[in-house]
Design a protein that fits this description.
Two copies of one chain form a homodimer. Chain A has 402 residues and is an alpha/beta fold. Helix content of chain A is 42%, strand content 20%. In chain A, a hairpin with a 2-residue loop joins strand 13 and strand 14. The first copy, chain A, starts with 6 loop residues before the first helix and ends with a helix. The N terminus of chain A is likely disordered.
Chain lengths: 402, 402
Amino acid sequence: MASQPHDSSRHDNTLAVIRSLREHGPAARVDIGTRNGISSATVTSISADLLQQELITELPPDVSRPSGRGRPKTLIHLDTEAACVICVKLSINELQLVVGDFAGQVRHSEHHSVATLTLTPGDLTALLEEKIAAVCTTALANHRRLAGICLAIQGVVSSHSGTLIWSPALSFRNAPLSPPLAERFGCPVLLENDANCIASVLATQPAYAGYPNLVVIMLGYGIGMSVMIDGVPFVGANGSAAEFGHSKYQPGGALCACGKRGCIEAYASDYALYREAREVLDLPAGDSAHPSEQQMQALTQLAMQGDPEAQRIFAEAGRALGYGMANLLALFNPDLVLITGSGVRGYAAMQESMQTALDEALVSELIGPTRIVSCPWDRDMTCLGGIAIALQATDSQILSAS
Amino acid sequence: MASQPHDSSRHDNTLAVIRSLREHGPAARVDIGTRNGISSATVTSISADLLQQELITELPPDVSRPSGRGRPKTLIHLDTEAACVICVKLSINELQLVVGDFAGQVRHSEHHSVATLTLTPGDLTALLEEKIAAVCTTALANHRRLAGICLAIQGVVSSHSGTLIWSPALSFRNAPLSPPLAERFGCPVLLENDANCIASVLATQPAYAGYPNLVVIMLGYGIGMSVMIDGVPFVGANGSAAEFGHSKYQPGGALCACGKRGCIEAYASDYALYREAREVLDLPAGDSAHPSEQQMQALTQLAMQGDPEAQRIFAEAGRALGYGMANLLALFNPDLVLITGSGVRGYAAMQESMQTALDEALVSELIGPTRIVSCPWDRDMTCLGGIAIALQATDSQILSAS
């Protein structure tokens, strides 16, 4: 029997076909080949295997739109029922579960209000097991297997070991979250920082594809960040890199949720803005330590309408952001900084003082050609990113199991 | 004729043999094979080519040290005369030129006092051409070719384009330095930040080899930094990343050489320490804006002997370093931070306040397991690093030209 020297390149090409179909949707074999630099014959052979493994399907030729001469091309597409993945997003007082199909499309989404700060590690594991099991029952009625789970959590995580190091949504620290779930559900359980999930989605968008050094700053209840280098999140030695929110603005300054003073987050996060504002402004009642979207909208509205106190508070937040940005630019020299997250609602009120502070802090040679732009927060991309990450991480396993 | 499908792996293996000999010195073919995972037959075939190209030589077997049974093994070694490279180090008021041979050993070194701050771009290029040409004449008497030149400069450089962006040693900015020299000497001219040269040497030392996320901080006239990720310097979008010295400690604080206020360098560099000290202490006369090693030694001595003013000044510098370190750890989460450079002479007087400031600034979860250690500055490794970088960058060219 002949040896098979090309097994690993065959495997790589098969993954490329799957990912190309996931990214671009149904396509003809010849177009998939062109797009990925694979010969037509190889794509044909790979797709025969994938059809047999029931990982792709053939779509009937669209005779209404003939593409030039000859008969219409048969398109292939991922079999959406081949597998599903689940992304669980944990943020302060909220749990969201989303099911994605094998093509990366969202098939189900549910939200639960949970008093996250009162949970013990055991409570959280039990809660996650219960909610995932319930979602699984429905999901497995429509999909042939659960390929993987991604936990997307605000805070510091060690992706390698699946350990939560520290999250503003939880009152405990250093808890292994992935291992018990992986055992319970018999599939890989990835643990990711929420900003990395979002950045993974943004980095693939055509508008941002030309920026190999991309920084995404997430404004909101806390302040998160993701540093993408050549499309891969930079996580540092044990997963806690890119903690922009806890880099420093003012030694000995405002108190941060982390317990230390003078962090950027202690000036520019939702809770910091609301803490300053509730002293001097007439704002909606409610938990002012964990302001709701409605409370934050009311505060932002005041600044937009010209209230001088509200404007002063956002300007000081912008100044802290500008000094933090100076450190980012001096240390990472990114091509592009994208500012997003729910807190981007107040960006217009912070932008001018942010730019002034940045120019005050850093020589123009170090600001260089870095672009700083905001990105509207019209939908939460965390779970979309978590689904993409879970599929990407489990494709090989699905292939070898099929 | 048979096609040669393994050309690129042959080339890679040849480079591996050359680099193994450079790193470990003379070795037997079988040991080179074992060390690099290459078959003995391949090493034998590669070394036959390299002998013919006069890039290696055979050493006579050392019969006085028989290695077990059988006849002593013949060792091969790089032919030191095959090529040379030149590293030019430019720092404030000093130009150093070093010639390295094909084995990476220093063969010649010379220093020149130059009033660097008075130079125009044209002056500098003319000076570099003159000094390099003079060194070349001697070097080419002992080496068959000049393979490349590395300019190692304190400050911000764009390695891609060979452009100096900004250096504390020069009063002009944004000047293309490599292109005219490459044309004049007909070889590649690399432009590197001095800290990256040093870090490239340190990263290969066995003591630091197990730290894939390594940060090197250079204390001295200015404050430099190199971030090595998996052995490669992280330079950012246009080469100006890792500018730790100009990350911020105190908004609106002490004046920095860059013209801005509150940079770490404005507190913890030689000039900043001396500026504070000369107001209150009896110190050697001289250019206090550019203190000499002797002046800095005198100041450091005072702190070591317990002078409270000198101790206060170093403690404040340590505090600034500690806050800068907090940002580094929050953003890069390195395995190891090495503090070195000539300014490490005063580290003992800064260390305690640096650690206190770091603990004050950052939660323990973000300090994590990062080790922070000082590394004695008993010799300047800049030129050694420049030589290694120039050889590494030109090996392929030497191979194809031989």
